[in-house]
Amino acid sequence: MEKNETSSSVDDKPRPWQSYHTVYTNAKAGMEGVDKEKVQRIVYEMSKGSKYFENEEKKEALMREKVENMRARCAKLSAAELSHYQTLADRRILELEATRDLSRTWLHVDMDAFYAAVETLSNPSLKGKPMAVGGMSMISTANYEARRFGVRAAMPGFIARKLCPELIFVPTDFKKYIYYSDLTRKVFQRYDPNFVAASLDEAYLDITEACRERGVAGGEIAEELRTSVYEETGLTCSAGVGPNRLLAKVCSDINKPNGQFVLPNDRMAVMTFISSLPIRKIGGIGKVTEHILRDVFEIKTCEDMLQKSGLLYALFSRSSTDFFLSVGLGIGKSDAPEVRSRKSISSERTFSATDDEALLFQKLGKWPFDLQSCHSNYFAADIAEMLCNDMQKEGLSGRTLTLKLKTASFEVRSRAVTLQNYICSSEDILKYATKLLKAELPVSLRLIGLRVSHFNDTKDAAPSDPGQKTLNGFIVSGDVSRKVLSNQTTSLNLDVSDQHFVDKVEINFSVDSREDCGTRDPSGDNHMEDLDEHLCTSDNIMEVENNDGTLCNKVADKANIGDMVQHNREPQQTEILQSEEAGSPLQVQVERSSPSTASKVHPDTDATCSSKQEDQLFWVDGYKCSLCGIEMPPNFVDERQEHSDFHLAERLQKEESSVRSRTLMPRQRVDQKDLITSHSSRRKKHKPSPKEGKHIPIDMFFVKSNQNF
DNA sequence: TCTAATAGACATC
DNA sequence: TGGGGGATGTCTATTAGA
């Protein structure tokens, strides 16, 4: 619909790029004179046909659907209903108006093109030249010279280079940014010791007391602060002064760069300011919300929110409506923000899309013993380990693990499991993450992420520092090694902002909190150990494990037993396949096999129970399938078991087919093949959806499994 | 009916 | 030539279990 509207214009030439909505053409400071149509066309030309583009189109279609649904709901509202909702909305507006606080003065400081400015400071030859901080895949910041070409943050480097061929790319260097950020924060602290750092380059200051003590207006303080920042860092910043944080932030953007804007603490002034303010300028209203509000309700400015308050009240949730109406009134938070503790911690990596299952598992976590000599790539990435490191640095343990996946077609999925006990070790994270990932296979992925939430004791958890979270993300994307990350994070922990947080929260990173990490839950019961029992239901196997010292050996033993048993499974084949059809976990059957039998057979030497030696599966060098070459580490017990089962079923089918082929007609042979394929794909694929029902929590799954036996 | 868990979407820097 | 980030929080819808 919108496509049709925009695909032709005055001269009737098709302009398909006009319907490709990207953030890249949005107004941003320094982009006022940009030829938007040119930028849009180049971005479109470079994007079309790509998987990313296709996904964007899908998202666009979904958004249109949302708009249509909402329009339909609007149309269904009767006059009586509308009047009812208008009454409710009017009442709510009065309630919100009563909360308006004009007694405080907030200052929002935003450093101008911070990373780019710091880079120019340390390399003056960049001055006056278009420059971007980042790389070919993504840029973090562009200086104002580059912005004139349409280059901006969050734009892929290769598109930026197309827009501005002379663009200079500078890699991110967070040590520098943290150093300069610390300098700015030292200035901020002089005006508000409890300032709120929103990121490395942004902060909110309550300057009410500073203004009162010195008998000056907010604008004067802003001017003085900006001068101090420049004198002490050589960097410019912009500032906004207003009665609350929401307005102060909007104000700081008005005279960017190196400027400021003061909104008086006066209701009329606020309402006038708000009346023509585009909704997109408000923090919290992004591309999608703007689109919906504009296309469904014709809301373009903040004032329009009040005009359409009845409809908003009718169609949005209470919290969304409250937010929209507050925006319409220019009301924001003006009290000291409560210190929020961190709610989750995560780590994710983007890589070249692959459906190589071994590779995907490898991205998730490394094997718990040294295989470097076997396969150097196994240490290329290790998300579980990185997450574990980050958690340990902050003394966190949590009981919900979420696996995030981005498919080759840019579709984002998440799969979560909530455990009965808290985890923080990389082994535990890897164990559950592997289960979650396994259930998604086969799949081609370009990103894997892990997040831990539901922390052990949120009261004692570290407060979230937006500066740090940003830092983590960019350091990793900026080709900086984990070692650097570690150092920098440590350094940041000691910087001004964090002292500031520490002052406020009295965080306790005591040994106790670390002791809570791992497999022990607050009650003192060790559910994780229980779970291990469920995982490995053979008492005999447990004996072997309990007598064993290290985890590595435990895992390896488990795996070997699985491998060994595999070679003895031929007589049980019918039972195994039936069991699987019934939904029973195959691994349990296998692991219940007698270790004494297993111990007689070595995977590499077994030749006793196969009719055909060449069809036998064993793990070359302990990790590579002898039949198809797929690589799976020994601690991937279940995966290896399933893999073995697959080959076993395949072989049986082959043998059966070869017998039948002597008597079957060609068509019947095809049917047989279909049968195998469908069976095989059914066993591999399990992709639960909200509609289909919930994931069984993993620990519950194993408890149930155990009960079955 | 309330609550917790899950999944996806959206937003920010 | 191909190449489109990472960390975190909030909200909403849906579902299942207590």
Automatic annotation (TrEMBL):
Any single GO BP term: error-prone translesion synthesis
Catalytic activity annotation: DNA(n) + a 2'-deoxyribonucleoside 5'-triphosphate = DNA(n+1) + diphosphate
Cited InterPro entries: DNA/RNA_pol_sf, DNA_pol_Y-fam_lit_finger_sf, DNA_pol_Y-fam_little_finger, DNA_polymerase-Y, DNApol_IV, Rev_trsase/Diguanyl_cyclase, UBZ3, UmuC
EC number from the UniProt entry: 2.7.7.7
Biased composition (Polar residues): 586-599
TM regions (residue ranges): none
KW Nucleotidyltransferase (keyword) present: yes
Any one GO cellular component localisation term in the record: nucleus
Location of the region described as Disordered in the Swiss-Prot/TrEMBL record: 580-608, 654-698
Domain UmuC: 106-286
Domain of life: Eukaryota
Gene Ontology terms, MF aspect: damaged DNA binding; DNA-directed DNA polymerase activity; zinc ion binding
UniProt similarity note: Belongs to the DNA polymerase type-Y family.
NCBIfam families noted in UniProt: PRK02406.1
The protein's name: DNA polymerase kappa
Organism for this UniProt entry: Turnera subulata
